[in-house]
Amino acid sequence: YYKYDLIFLIALGFVAVITNLIFIPIYGITGAALASAISVFSFNTARYFFLLFKMKIQPFSLNTIKVLIICAVTFIFNYFIPVERIAIVDILIRSILIASLFGVLIVVTKSSEDINSVILKVFNLIRKKLK
Q: In which domain, by residue range, is 91 found?
């Protein structure tokens, strides 16, 4: 299936060039960002439908929707964290709070079997060490 991937990559290149030629003169650097977004979205959409119809694989599940909702919740949470005047302190506080919230929500909703199994192994290891 590498031939299809090559076709998708060549199409990505053409879409990127065409959209850049269209949007950069109109919107400047924002047009370049828009062109890149359109190109990558088109590329990933084509690959998604290839997987869906040619290989009969559905790469997304209910857990994907859970993770997207968790991302939205943490993004909104970030908006309400007060801004610190010292940039490094602000970065540290936001990083710790957002990573903690995201991690807890992922574990609680059981959105990732891999993460949950690693957390369980770590807890079991800690329990063994404490006994």
A: 62-130
Asked if 15 contacts 39 with a C-beta cutoff of 8 angstroms, the reply is yes
The model's pTM is: 0.70
- Asked if 30 and 76 sit in the same domain, the reply is no
Rounded to the nearest 10°, the torsion over CA 69, 73, 75, 76 is: 130
Which of 31, 53, 75 is at the close of a domain? 53
Residue 67 shares a structural domain with residue 30: no
d(CA 13, CA 34) in angstroms, rounded, equals: 15
29 and 89 share one domain: no
**What angle in degrees, to the nearest 10, is found between the helix axes of 87-109 and 113-130?**
100
Residue 6 is encoded by which pair of tokens?
Answer: 């090559």
Rounded to whole angstroms, how far apart are CA atoms 53 and 47? 10
Separation CA 1–CA 21 (nearest Å)? 31
* pLDDT tens string 21-70: 999 999 999 999 999 999 999 999 999 999 999 999 999 999 999 999 99
